[in-house]
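Q: I'm writing up a methods section and want to include an example of the input and output format. Could you take the sequence below and give the corresponding predicted structure tokens, formatted cleanly so I can copy it straight into the document?
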Amino acid sequence: MRCEPWAETTPGALEIDTVALCGGSLSGAIVWALDATDIHSGWTEVRAVWNRGAHATRKRLSEIQAALPFAITKLDFDNGTEFLNAHFITHFQSARAKDRAEPLATIPQERQRPHRTKNYTHVRLLLGDDRFEHYELVEPLNEALREWSLWNNPYGAQRRLLRKERQPDGKVKRYHEKKASTPCARLLAREELSQEQRQKLQAMLSSHDPIAMRASIEAKLRALYSQRAQLQAQQDDDMEAAPESAPLSSVPARGMAGLRYVRSVASGSLDSLHSSPPSPVRSPTRKQALPTSPRTTKAKPITVSPIVRHRAAS
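A: Here is the clean output for your methods example:
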């Protein structure tokens, strides 16, 4: 458990997190976004992960490790089960850095992070709060996120958070860099950067056109949302075609939509997929049998908890 603020002066300390692309509901299997941010430079890589599985998360983080222009020296994450498992921890504890002979140190974890990962700027601003619940969307989404990371790190300028101070009135004052800079420029400004790493970053800057990359990202996102609409329409047609009281063997199963339908029925009853019927009212004979009180009391107004109102509105 690590609770002190970050004080990293060299690149390599990654803070990783997962973002649910659930549309407001965590029910069922969905696509998650794996977000890895270097604390010193702000270099951020985002990948798509299906259902936040241990093997899938480890595989995507290995892809991020290969895409980074520096070696990973430290991993920091929360208490999510996609990270706290023997498969994930054993793999990265046995890994060796390129310029070090000893294995990586024990992976720390913390619950409250002074420097948050780029969940909002790199995921929410790009994909919003939409729901991605189809397995067929993992690879197209991963391609768009990979190119988005390749565009943002060399060309997306940002002001890095330096420190935070809590004022006497309870408000938190944040101090940022005065001049915005890209993560790639921060790495190139380091004098101790190796010649191989410097050549790799300079080749990245010279071999890509940011305007063309931006247009390619938007085209991939349009194709992604078009495919998502087609899969959702196919799933809705399958649900409407299946009668409510039909047995499991008579449910039409077409591709992954049918597989998700079978999984949802296996995890609960078929009636749970639809809105629950209203609760039955008491019969008139039962009402007459109840004792009546001679006193008449004034009906109290019904009060609704703010939490209930918030959930009903959402």
